[in-house]
Design brief:
Elements (H helix, E strand, L loop, with lengths): L2 H22 L11 E6 L6 E6 L6 E2 L12
Antiparallel strand pairs: 1-2, 2-3
């Protein structure tokens, strides 16, 4: 397994953990948004950081730098 593949699998697992944790931390009386998930995608040919709603909607690229962007926090 290559280093890039390990990185992408790790980021996928991290994103899933954030999704699971976010859905378990909501209170019954809260009216606030459960938050967003930051993730890396190579859909444009190079790694870029995106955010999306916890239900997968509204995927938005954060930066258009033209260089590799990784490690969202």
């Amino acid at each position: 397994m290559t280093g890039k593949m390990k990185l992408y699998i790790g980021l996928l697992v991290l994103g899933l953990l954030v999704l699971i944790h976010g859905s378990s931390c909501t209170s019954g009386t809260s009216t606030t948004s459960p938050g967003k998930i930051a993730f890396v995608s190579i859909r444009d040919g190079i790694p870029q950081i995106y955010v999306m709603e916890t239900d997968g909607n509204n995927q938005t690229r954060l930066i258009r730098s033209g260089k590799e962007e990784r490690y969202p926090s």
